[in-house]
Design brief:
This protein has helices at about 25-30, 60-65, 70-80, 95-100, 135-150, 170-175, 190-215, 215-225, 230-235, 235-245, 250-255, 255-270, 275-280, 335-340, 395, 420-430, 475-490, and strands at about 15-20, 45, 85-90, 105-110, 115-125, 130-135, 155-160, 185, 300, 310-315, 320-325, 350-355, 365-370, 370-375, 380-385, 400-405, 410, 430-435, 450-460, 495. The protein is an alpha/beta fold and about 500 residues long. It has three domains: about 15-165, no CATH class; about 170-190 and about 300-495, Nucleoside phosphorylase domain (Rossmann fold); about 195-280, no CATH class. β17, α16 (about 420-430) and β18 form a beta-alpha-beta unit. α7 (about 190-215) packs across α10 and α7 (about 190-215) packs across α12 (about 255-270).
Length: about 500
């Protein structure tokens, strides 16, 4: 996912310096291996093996991006010129204590700019800091790059990596166990999904109210006598024809119809503000809003686990079922999530996320449905992922804002690796979009689950609109999220959602 996680480039690749018995090749090969013979003990790895801060980068200011992601207290220590030695430990406090419990450790509390608290350990004897809140291989690499770009010298930074730990995740396991009827899954921003499904449902309810009211002679007579109504009716004649002749569910399924109805509703409410509203109780609520305005919300959060929502929906077969939505994991943990989901054999899993666009043909707000997937390993070698993006269906590709593109998508372990050299290498391989997770959905063994990926382009690496510029609340991206919902509805073949 763009912005929360990460993307370099030297054509020479990276050399891994390992202290201990495990070799560099073993660590790199695991990034593409699906199984391992045994669970290796964690080993410290020097990282990164060369200074990336001076290389041309696809971001405008990768140093500022990294510093904004370093806690305030630690950033102050770095700024005073006393850059501490830091070890990034993958796996959490349990691994931290099992690996370094023999040291005289003190706990250090710190806070990020957004107010979120965090904790480090520090060795009382050497002064080395330990960042242990990194629960995935890719996230540990990303945190290492953050510290590097923020000013920690390479000779004072190393990582403890144990990729086998990513084969199981307790939070994922707990969430899947809480979904007794898990058949359809969305991996993405579940709160945005809840918001937009609620708005679509509201549009369908309001269309039904309009349909009934406009067929009532008394309502029509009152409207005809209202100043401004005849002009509004002429301007919105096509919309009103759809309201009168089509089922209200069209406003749930189609973002184009939703936007038209929203514009009409806003004008109508302004037109009927005041005494005119009181004369139309079949059309307008006492608060002045169009009848059918929502009184509930779509989706209910299931406590525990990994932030899961449940949505009661109706399919195009008329059957009621549950749709479950999970928040984004980071990086290669998307593969871990798919492994846990695969045990339950869902029929459909749809990943919706944000991505950087590498093609001159895409702009922020476009929606892409990649044809193929590649990943970049820590040594910057590329690997192709087998699998079919089942969202590449004609009815989805024909939706407004969706781009028909036969090119590939690439997932990297951090946006901070996206130097201009790496971005150019991706373009040369026919890659038109980049994120940190999507390709990992196809890392597991073949299954009957239909896996789909739809990506919203939010930034253009190296083309002036970079990751630092992204504002998810910007109108063009908010409207694009609503258009993306067309793809979700079509992929999952749903026609309605219940408000709770």
């Amino acid at each position: 996912m763009r912005g929360s996680a990460p993307r370099r480039a030297s054509t020479r690749g990276w050399r891994w310096i390992v202290t201990g018995a495990i070799g560099a090749i073993a660590l790199v090969m695991w990034a593409t291996a699906d199984t391992a013979a045994e669970h290796p003990a964690p080993k410290a790895v020097a990282f990164p093996p060369e200074d990336l801060r001076g290389q041309p980068h696809s971001m405008q200011d990768p140093v500022a991006y990294a510093r904004s992601r370093v806690p305030i207290g630690l950033r102050a220590v770095i700024d005073r010129g006393g850059a501490p030695a830091i070890t990034v430990v993958q796996g959490g406090e349990e691994v931290m204590r099992s690996s370094y419990g023999h040291l005289r450790l003190e706990e250090i509390s710190d806070r990020f700019d957004d107010g979120k608290d965090t904790t480090f350990f520090r060795d009382r004897d050497t002064g080395r800091w330990f960042d242990f809140r990194n629960y995935g291989f890719d996230l540990a690499l990303h945190r290492g790059l953050i510290y590097h770009f923020a000013g920690i010298p390479r000779d004072r930074l190393d990582l403890v990596l144990d990729p086998e730990r990513d084969r199981f995740n307790q939070a994922f396991f707990d969430s899947v166990a809480r979904a007794p009827d898990l058949k359809q899954v969305v991996i993405g921003s579940r709160r945005s999904l809840a918001r937009d499904l609620t708005l679509r449902k509201e549009a369908a309810l309001q269309a039904a109210v309009l349909k009934r009211a406009l067929a009532t002679p008394d309502v029509r007579a009152t409207l005809d006598a209202t100043a401004g109504w005849p002009a509004l009716e002429r301007r919105m004649a096509e919309l009103l024809r759809v309201v009168a002749t089509e089922p209200p569910s069209v406003f749930f399924r189609s973002s184009a119809r939703y936007f038209e109805l929203r514009a009409f509703r806003d004008e109508l409410e302004r037109l009927l503000d005041g005494p005119a509203a009181a004369a139309l109780p079949d059309l307008v609520q006492p608060d002045g809003r169009l009848k059918g305005s929502r009184t509930g919300a779509a989706g209910r959060e299931i406590p525990g686990g990994f932030g899961m929502f449940r949505f009661p929906v109706t399919g195009d077969d008329g059957e009621r079922r549950s749709l479950y939505a999970f928040k984004h994991p980071y990086g290669n943990l998307a593969r871990t999530m798919m492994r846990h989901l695969a045990v339950r054999r869902p029929t459909d899993v749809l990943f919706i996320g944000s991505a950087g666009g590498l093609s001159a043909d895409v702009r922020p707000g476009d929606l892409v449905v990649p044809a193929g997937f590649q990943t970049v390993a820590p040594d910057l070698t590329f690997a192709t992922r087998a699998g079919t993006n089942r969202a590449r269906r004609p009815e989805i590709l024909a939706l407004p804002g969706f781009k028909e593109s036969p090119t590939d998508h690439c997932s990297v372990f951090s946006p901070l690796v996206e130097t201009t050299v790496l971005v150019d290498a991706m373009r040369a391989r026919g890659i038109d979009s980049v994120d940190c997770e999507a390709a990992h959905l196809f890392d597991g063994p073949p299954s009957d689950t239909a896996i789909g990926v739809i990506l919203l382009i939010t930034d253009l690496p190296g083309q002036g609109v970079t990751l630092e510029d992204v504002d998810a609340a910007a109108p063009h991206l908010r409207d694009a999220q609503m258009r993306l919902l067309d793809g979700v509805i079509a992929f999952l073949r749903i026609t309605d959602v219940e408000l709770e």
